[in-house]
């Protein structure tokens, strides 16, 4: 038997002993009067203790948990009736025995019995009701604690699943981005263009961001903006004069943080699908704060309606919508607009310092 179990048993024994000791004192003073002998009242009270304790435990540990708590109301009522009849008989017997024990054969003038059976029944059943009430209260809080523990366990498991899913979604974004960038560098290497080394350096900076910053739940907004600028600079080397970019980024507080890699999938898809019919990519990027919300707006030219639809089916965009749902629930707003010539994304998220 473990020490904790032994201590728990000792605590229960001590509590029950104190409770029944208090009940005994209640009986002694309830059945005593000024000119009566307190010892006689104690003898009479001791005679009532067995039936009081037995009836209380019968209700508290048998009838209530096995029938009332399980909604077996008919059986609870039936067995309760039996218990009350038996306890009433035992109370009468105990009272008579207590009278004989405390007062001998002198009936008149003996206070405990002269109190009347009505008061004896009242005192005993009051204690029984109190004992059952304490037991019910204890069971209620015990059940409440179990439900709270179960709820916390479920929430913790759900949180772990969400964290794992978010990590999985971010890991999906990285290969998608790397594949596109490496494919670009490969194309430049085949043509032996001088811009290839510069692209490799930019890619190294982006990989540094991906390997270290995206492991965090939040990153400074300024760091994310620099990431976007590096990506645009990387693509500028590939597109050259075929890229017409209008970038408008407001000044932001250094304390603003957002989830990492939140805007890159939108920008990535713009470069992937954003060529117009003449081969020119028109790109407009805006970042600003409006009414305590961070607005990310991106608009790019497209060549065909088919490419517009393809932008909605990319791995990055699908994952970013799942991430937004996990992180912000209903507190974000994402709007996608498509026309014959332009594709635009407007995302609003609450800012947190």
Account of the protein in words:
Helix content is 67%, strand content 13%. The chain has 353 residues and is an alpha+beta fold. It has two domains: 113 residues; 180 residues, Histidine kinase-like ATPase, C-terminal domain (Heat Shock Protein 90), CATH 3.30.565.10. The strands form two sheets. It has a five-stranded mixed beta sheet, covered by helices on one side. A two-stranded antiparallel ribbon has the order 1-3. Helix 2 packs antiparallel against helix 3 and helix 5 packs antiparallel against helix 6. The protein is rod-shaped. InterPro entries: Bact_2-comp_sensor_kinase, MFS_trans_sf, Sig_transdc_His_kin_internal. GO terms for molecular function: phosphorelay sensor kinase activity. This is Sensor histidine kinase. Keywords: Kinase, Membrane, Transferase, Transmembrane, Transmembrane helix.
What's a quick, concise take on this entry?
One of its GO terms (molecular function) is phosphorelay sensor kinase activity. The protein is α+β, with helices and mostly antiparallel strands and 353 residues long.
Topology:
Layout: H1 3-30, H2 38-68, H3 73-103, H4 111-114, H5 117-190, H6 195-212, E1 219-220, H7 221-239, E2 243-249, E3 257-258, H8 264-273, E4 281-290, E5 293-301, H9 305-312, H10 315-328, E6 333-338, E7 342-350
Helix pairs in contact: 1-2, 2-3, 2-5, 3-5, 5-6, 5-10, 6-7, 7-8
Shape: rod-shaped
Q: Regions with pLDDT < 50 over 5+ consecutive residues?
A: 107-114, 306-313
Task: Assign the structural class, choosing from mainly alpha, mainly beta, alpha/beta, alpha+beta, or little secondary structure.
Answer: alpha+beta
The helix/strand order is HHHHHHEHEEHEEHHEE
